Amino acid sequence: MIYTCTMNPAIDLFVSTNNYDPLIVNRTSEEDIQPNGKGVNISFVLKMLGIENVALGFSGGFTGTFIEEELEKKGIKTEFVHVEGTTRINVFTHVESKNTEYKLVNRGPLIKLEQVDELLNKINLLSEEDILFVSGSNPRGVTDEVIIEIAKLSKENKFKLVLDTSSKVVLDSLKYNPYCIKPNNEELAKWFEKENLTDEELSYYGKKLVEMGAEIVLLSLGEEGCLLFTKEESLYVNAPKGKVINTACSGDTLLGTFIGSLKKELKLEEALKEAVAAGSSTAFSPGLTDYSDVEELKKQMNVKKLIIE
C-alpha cells in the first residue's frame, strides 16, 4: 500500500477582490476553497492514476474534518491523528485593480508529544511492501527529529520512504537510504550553503545526494525541467511551454506521478517524462491536473542521458 503523510495540512481559501483597502469592507468577486497540503495533493494525484492510498497526518477541528471528507469523497482512506485546535486555513487574495496577490499562511495547531508518538506508531506498522510519502513543513510541536525517526523506521521495517521537505534534515536522513527525495534547485543550494548553483554544480550535488544514500534524486528546476539521479543513471528532461497559472501544487503532482508511474512499472525515463508533463499541466491549471493534456505536453519534451565526470 502507498501512504501519504501530511503533518501540517491546510484549507486554502482563494479570493478575488477589485480593491483591498484598510478599515472598510472589501467585497470579493470570486472565492474557491481547496483541501491542501503536499501529501494531501499526492493522495489526490495517486487516486487519479488509479492507485489506492491511505492519507496520514494530523487533523484538528472542522477544517481537519473538511479535508478528511474531501479525501474520502474521492475514495481515499484516511487515518489521521486527531488533535486539539484547528487545522489551518491559508488565505490567498488576488487584487484585480493592482494585479497582485496577498498570501497569509497560518501556523496550524500545536501537536503534543503523545500525538507525535501515535503517528509514529501508525508508521511503525508499515512493511517492505509499502511506500510512504512524507511531504511538507512541520507543525508546531514537531521537530526535525521526527523526520529522522521516520527515516530510521523505513530502514528497520524496509518500507520505501519518499521525502519532500525543504529542511536540511534531509541530509541527515540519507544514511537511512530513502527511496526518493525531491529538492528543487534553491533548496539544494541552501543545503550545501551556496547562493546559487551552476548547471555543473546542480549535477555534482545531485549526484552527491545519491552517494550520501538516496536511491533516487528528483531535482526540480521549475520551468527549466527536471534532473534525475540514481547510481546507474543521470537524466534531464525539459519542461513543456504553456501559460503558468498556479505553481503551488506542481511539485506535488510531479512527485506523485513519478512514484505512481514507477508503481505501474513504467521505465525510469518514461516515468520522469510523465511526471514533468503532469507537473506542468498542474502549473497551467487553477487546481491539480486532470491529466487530459499530458500526452499533448509530452510531445514538447525530450529525455537526455547525462555523462557526469
TrEMBL record:
Q: Name one GO cellular component term.
A: cytosol
Q: Which segments constitute the Carbohydrate kinase PfkB domain?
A: 25-290
Record Pfam families: PfkB
From the UniProt record, list the reaction(s) this protein catalyses.
D-tagatofuranose 6-phosphate + ATP = D-tagatofuranose 1,6-bisphosphate + ADP + H(+)
Q: List the SUPFAM superfamilies hit by this protein, alphabetically.
A: Ribokinase-like
Q: Which GO terms describe its molecular function?
A: 1-phosphofructokinase activity; ATP binding; tagatose-6-phosphate kinase activity
Q: In which pathway does it act?
A: Carbohydrate metabolism; D-tagatose 6-phosphate degradation; D-glyceraldehyde 3-phosphate and glycerone phosphate from D-tagatose 6-phosphate: step 1/2
Q: Give UniProt keywords alphabetically.
A: ATP-binding, Kinase, Lactose metabolism, Nucleotide-binding, Transferase
Q: What class of enzyme is it?
A: transferase
Q: Name one GO biological process term.
A: lactose metabolic process
InterPro entries referenced in this protein's UniProt entry, alphabetically = 1-PFruKinase, PfkB_dom, Ribokinase-like, Tagatose/fructose_Pkinase
**What's its EC?**
2.7.1.144
| NCBIfam families in the cross-refs | 1-PFK (TIGR03168), pfkB (TIGR03828)
Name the protein family.
Belongs to the carbohydrate kinase pfkB family.
Tell me the protein's name: Tagatose-6-phosphate kinase
The uppermost taxa in this organism's lineage are: Bacteria, Bacillati, Bacillota, Bacilli, Lactobacillales
